[in-house]
Design brief:
single chain; alpha+beta; 9 strands; 157 residues
Length: 157
């Protein structure tokens, strides 16, 4: 018999759940598919993190990465802006949706209560592939025609 323990999320768990949501959202973007290749890139990611029911202050931070050779980055007019909203949910729901172990109270062979961290086997997260097809989630690859502004013209990709 297992009883779920509603422990708060640790800092690393919160970060992993954020990264999980970003990967899930951006995986659907055609620019991050395996057949795409880049000599480098420049990226700006802004994080606004507001802890629920906590005395820990909020975080509003922008991280800029630049791995591209000088002068090779596409102009700012060809950018895609994406906002990923992550709602407040119970900690164990966040863990399960992010494919992380959840804390449970169970009994050992001697009948003593023992806390364990269990990864729910048999449950396929909404964005994981099992047996070659997606269970309960969005298709793994979706290509959507996109209009990319280039100067005064528009090019459809």
């Amino acid at each position: 018999m297992e009883v779920s323990l509603p422990k708060q999320l640790s800092g690393p768990e919160a970060l992993e759940s954020i990264l999980f949501e970003l990967r899930k959202k951006w995986r659907m973007n055609g620019r991050f598919q395996p057949h795409m290749a880049y000599p480098g890139y420049r990226a700006r990611v802004t994080l606004e993190y507001y802890p629920a029911a906590s005395f820990i202050p909020a975080i509003e931070q922008t991280v800029e990465l630049d791995t591209a050779p000088e002068g090779s980055v596409v102009s700012q007019t060809a950018t895609v802006e994406e906002t990923v909203e992550i709602p407040v949910r119970p900690p164990n729901q966040v863990r399960e949706e992010s494919d992380m172990p959840t804390p449970v109270l169970t009994q050992d062979e001697q009948g003593n209560n023992v806390e364990k961290w269990v990864k729910r086997s048999g449950r396929v997260p909404k964005n994981k592939v099992k047996g070659g097809h997606v269970h309960g989630g969005e298709p793994e690859v979706t290509m959507v025609p996109t209009a990319i502004p280039v100067g005064k013209e528009e090019v459809t990709a």
